[in-house]
Amino acid sequence: MACTEEEFTELLSGEVYIDMDKLVAISRHGIPEKVRAEVWKYLLGISKTDKSEEERVKKQQQQDYKEIDKNDSEITKRIRAHLKRYQNYTRSDSRIKIDFQSVEIRNKFENIIISYINYNNDIEYSFGMLAILGPFIATLQSESDIFFCYVAMMKRIEENLQIESLTSKLSRFMMYFRSVLPELFSHFEEEEVSSNDWATSWIQNYLSCELPIECVLRLWDTYLSAQLGLDLHVFVSLAILTNFSEELLELEHSEILAFLQHLPGIDMDQIIAQAYNIRDDIRANNEL
What we know:
This protein is mainly α. The protein folds into three domains: 5-49, no CATH class; 73-162; 164-284, Orthogonal Bundle (Cyclin A, domain 1), CATH 1.10.472.80. It has helices spanning 5-12, 20-27, 33-43, 51-66, 73-89, 103-119, 127-139, 143-163, 166-180, 182-190, 199-204, 213-223, 233-243, 245-249, 253-261, 268-284. α4 crosses α8 (143-163). The protein is globular.
């Protein structure tokens, strides 16, 4: 059961230190919108639990971010083109919106991605970088806070992929899909719906494009705090397919892809609970 904003505020207002065990425990059930930015910074290790260190660390982060080169005309062009594509994924009926008309917001996307690439010299720019950044732009205000949270999230994603590659994750997801939802899997085959046209983005970008932004934020509350973390994502994806299977069975090729690329709003608490149940069922059948 989700905790109230007051319970989070009380925990965050500790004068000496933040009890991370408690913060992690209450965050996995969802974080209230007004405190999400502050909580995410603790969950990602950007804010220090020792309050005496907080101000010093924040000033150092701001200075470090300021010193990173944010100029690259070639990447800027690509980001601007991809922002139009990313904007097409977002919808006007979302409760939480990213103002793509705002020069300040567009500058944040450009500055942070270019800073991230210059911060990690061996990294190539891709659309996925922008997709993962979107939820942080929607949640936090300070550009340096967004940057360091983004760096921490990308590190978690990279470490997760070192344990299991994207190709392996996709293969396992499709195997589970065939096992858990054989009728829907067959329907996708009959309609010649390729996993490359939807599943790759679902798994690689953690549904940051396909779900309404408020659903992504609720989902990521759990990814940042639950013990399974990002490993839960494959099962969340299966839970979403399960939830929409009846609708999807009625659709044809192009309609299926349009649906999968722009998912409706959904009760993420229910989806997350269902994801754990699906994982337990798969484990019980010795398929994990």
